[in-house]
Amino acid sequence: MANSLIKNYADDGMFVDAIRVYLDLLESGFPVQEFQFFPCLIKAFGGLGSVEKGEEIHGHLLKFGFLEDTYVSNSLLGMYWKCGAVEHADKMFDEMPQRDAISWNTMISGFSRLGYYTESLTLLARMIGDYGAVFENRVACLSALSSCASTQSLTHGRAIHGCIVKNKFDSDEYLVSGLIDMYMKCGDVKNAERVLIRILDDNIVRGNKVIWNVMITGYVSNECPSLALSLFLEMLESGIGPDSSTVVAVLVLCSQLLDIALGKQIHGLVVSLALENDVRVQTALIEMYFNCSSSETGLKIFRQSPNKNLIMWGSVISNCAQNGYPNESLQLFEDFMILNGFPDLVILLAALRACSSLALKRSGVELHGMAVKLGLTLDAFVGGALVDLYGKCGDMNSAEKVFDGLDTKDLVSWNALISGFAQNEYPEKALKAFRDMQSRHLEPNSVTVACILSVCMHLAVMILCKQVHCYILRHGFLINNILIGNSLISAYAKCGIMSDSLTIFNQMSDRNEVTWNSIILGFGMHGRRQEMFQMFERMKETTEVKAEHATFTALLSACSHGGEVAMGWKYFNSMTQDYNLEPRVEHYTCMVDLLGRAGNLNQAYDLIKEMPCSPDDRIWGSLLGSCKNHGNVGLARVVASHIFELDPTSIGYRTLLSNLYEESGRWNEVSQVRTEIRDTGVRKQPGCSWIEVDNNIHTFTAADCSHPLCEEIYATLESLSVEIKEEGYVPLSQSTAVGSHTKD
């Protein structure tokens, strides 16, 4: 009675009750030697998950000599593996006087299950070496195949395949699926296909869904989409009904192909199979819709799901962060925290990525604190995300502290640091970090190179740009890499070498919107407007890309600097009429600048007032500059009031207004504005410029006398001033300014 009670309690997961019954038996005087259900009792101890409790039953059995029974010893082995006690299991196995197939299987599968793949394969080889066979059982082979798949050990996998054939196990359904899985994960698609072909004539094995699923999944993971789709259709034609695993594999295929039409068909199949509430299928559907640019549908599936698990939450929060929905990502993160408490690594990384996109330092600091509580700050992924976050928020001191505290600095972490320095205009630090990374034998990738090229753009130093270009060629970074190609086009354009920008553009076999925008912006930057207009016409002829907001920003900026009022209006109106693009603040700023330069100040002012979006200080500042150039003091006052309402501490715009008043002879206003400047306590940063001469960089600031050739430089400036005066230039002086006609 007591024996069966212990067995029932152990089978039902009531482990403490099972152990209590045994202890009551001992207290009642029941002879230990007559107890016959030790494997059930050991199972109960294993269910507690405590190595210490396991050692107690082990000592008890050793004391009464029950370890001579292989059945009991195997149960103890299983218990130790269930508790994750690898060393205890290994030691006990070595001390066992007798081992059977279950002993070997328990050890081989235990090593494999806990990720000790090499040890699992070594033990299999030892078993074969000792016995010359595999005990006519399949468990050891399955575990070993799993280890081979996890380590991508094709050599060992083939050897095990030989043992399977030798022992005539090659028609076993489980081993067939194990072999296919192993070959696919090792990248050996051909041998996986051979295994499948051998069993197609066996109707029983052929009807096994698992084998078809493993094969389709293998094709997908090895980027053989057409083969995966063909096999899926063949499966349907054979009358083998797909299950959730099949559907998940095919949805991943749709994500790879970015084929939303196929994805919608599979979604329909999901509904017909009544799998729409399966959490794995729902997660795969969410991933597919996000990857195929139908984020709203993915969010709808998530919101309607009654079975939101951790993986689904991680999927939707990550996809929102990666696909341009950072605010939605953070809102979902807050919802998750309310419902579930602390996040896992995937969800935390997604939230950090969203904060980086929005440059939300305060929220990022809160997430940093959460990472500290969870003990994740030393994780390379979290560290890289934190470095990126602080860099995006302009806090490079915090970014460096996080980076320096990382035990493992991987390529992602280095890229985040270099990118942070580049984005925050620390070019020298970015270059130093790049050299430090190389000194640690880390090979840069395309992201690293793009960051360094952005440094070249910032410095506009031709020799540095050439050096990086040579580095790209030497290290095999292809120009066909769109990210690198785009960065090179922009870097050469910023350095003034449009011929090289155009050469790279023409060499690129694949171009995206950024490629076209970069070359258009380059031509516009250098005043080559006709070539820019022609390039835009070429862009319109392509079917792969379509003009976007950045394209029109480049076009309108060039029109502004070139005084092309008619062309500017043409492109501005084309945004809504031809491309269904709503102009943003930057487009209105370009138009205001264009109209202001042309003297159409009132039209520029009216355009600002009619904007559907709120004007910022830059658009008002552009109009203020035009008011100064055209001497319109009355409008300048109105414009300045808008600027100082938006930015009360502005020094640059107050200086501009003061100069306008000075040129107009309004000395009371000059005194008032300069008093306001002094009262703010803020000083205007002096201007800085540099020039490259014979591969050397010469830097200058306003009123600079630090250059070793200072006297020669100022003498040359004086000589140039004399020459331009002789050519008829009359500099503006106080007397001419006071006597000039102004609008009030």
Description of the structure:
Strands 1-2 form a two-stranded antiparallel sheet. A hairpin with a 2-residue loop joins strand 1 (688-693) and strand 2 (696-701). It starts with a helix and ends in a 5-residue tail after the last helix. The chain has 744 residues and is an all-alpha fold. Helix 1 (2-11) runs antiparallel to helix 2 (15-27) and helix 8 packs across helix 9.
Structural class: mainly alpha
Q: Whole-number radius of gyration? A: 36 Å
Gap between N and C termini, in Å? 109 Å
Helicity level: over 70%
Low-confidence runs: 733-744
| Residue-averaged pLDDT | 87
- Can you summarize the main beta sheet? 2 strands, antiparallel
Please give the number of β-strands: 2
In short:
The chain is mainly α and about 750 residues long. It has 43 helices and 2 strands. α21 (about 325-340) runs antiparallel to α22 (about 345-360) and α32 (about 515-525) packs parallel to α34.
Notable traits:
repeat, two-stranded antiparallel ribbon, single chain, about 750 residues, disordered C terminus, about 0% strand, about 70% helix, elongated, mainly alpha, PPR_At4g14850-like_plant
